[in-house]
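agent: user wants the structure for Pyridoxal phosphate-dependent decarboxylase family protein from Lysobacter koreensis. delegating to structure tool.
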Amino acid sequence: MSTSLFAPLFDPLLDRAHAHASGFLRDLPQRFVGARAGRDEMLAALDAPLPPRGEDPAAVIDLLARHAERGASACASPRYFGFVIGGALPVALAADWLVSTWDQNAGIHVISPIAAAMEEIAARWLLELFDLPRESGVGFVTGCQMAHFTCLAAARHGVLRRAGWDVEADGLFGAPRIHVVASEEAHVTADVALRYLGLGTRSLVHVPADEQGRMRADRLREVLATLQGPTIVCAQAGNVNTGAFDPLREIGEAARAHGAWLHVDGAFGLWARASADRRVLADGIELADSWATDAHKWLNVPYDSGVAIVRHAQDHRDAMTSAAAYLIQTRGAERDAVDWVPEFSRRARGIPVYATLRALGRDGVADLVDRCCARARQFAQLLAAQPGVRILNDVVLNQVLVRFGDDDALTREVIEGVQRDGTCWASGTTWHSLAAMRISVSNWATSEADVVASAAAMVRVLGRVLGSQGDAEST
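agent: tool returned. relaying tokens verbatim.
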């Protein structure tokens, strides 16, 4: 097919998609933040028998865009505060469009030297930004779930190798038992990774946490004293509810004294290392053996983008790599991504990370983290000043836990009311048996005005709920 015929096949559809995308982005700061349609409406609008001859591509693109207006949440909105979701920076979104356009399979260098080079550079920049051991292995995965899987696969390999067992060749049947120690506040993704790896959740030994969700280092030392054999300790940098950090230096020293592998869940908290103000929270994190984080959270690149980092690059590579006679794999300095991640065929997700780090620089990443933390403190100050509103956590990072009227039912009703209101969107949680609203500030575009408007909406909904309850009591 000639060039003159090829481009016209794409241009009209790409122009149409660009127009829809621009409209969506233009309306994003003002639009209703939550989704306004559920399963039934979406199925009614989109479900149909598989067409025998297909439909007009332009009509299909228009259909998608039209129903995204009601069926898609405005997750990239500056007033979306649910689930630690960042919005895509303009440079990250533009780079991601190029990734889809180039359609590179980033599995091995020979297929895409540009993807391999950008991921190699982005990996080096991340190690510098986080100030982690420069010899570490780095893999770009779908998210923190697979980052945990990758890091804990390396940990499984490493601790069993030291015990004289080759888990990749011989499996787990008959292998020395691996003890896995984690806080009672550990995120569920660590449990899932253990299931995937055949270690099972019953291998977990839980350590008590304090009132902010931080692992108690004294109790960790007591637990480790009772264990013999291969051991993995899982710590947390940024509790999913409070944002609190485990005492990482004490945990690191205890793990090293025991000969245990230390893995850190830094899904969003690892980015505190980029901030001069917040870096102290992660003191001692460099003592760990592996770290998992997300770029689609605080770096604000599009989904999906996670990062697995392993101090012992050979353990990382041995746990992940694969080879086949038909492949052309490097024997030199070139990077084959398949050596560092579970996937073989995958998109070049490291390119938006490269573009964003290059566009922001070290100072830009620090400013992004600092601004989100400042907006979280602003939320806490505005809401705490209201009668009947209580902040449950020490706001040390970007997480705020809010309780209304010291009442579970009232708190849940306010959360639902805020979601229906559409000014902003925040999720609910249960913290130490108390219902709470969970506010996560992770978006580059969230301004002071956004926080003021969102806090006002929360207070307005609270007043409306209390008013309706009063009316109900009077009748």
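agent: one observation worth passing along. The chain has a mean pLDDT of 95.
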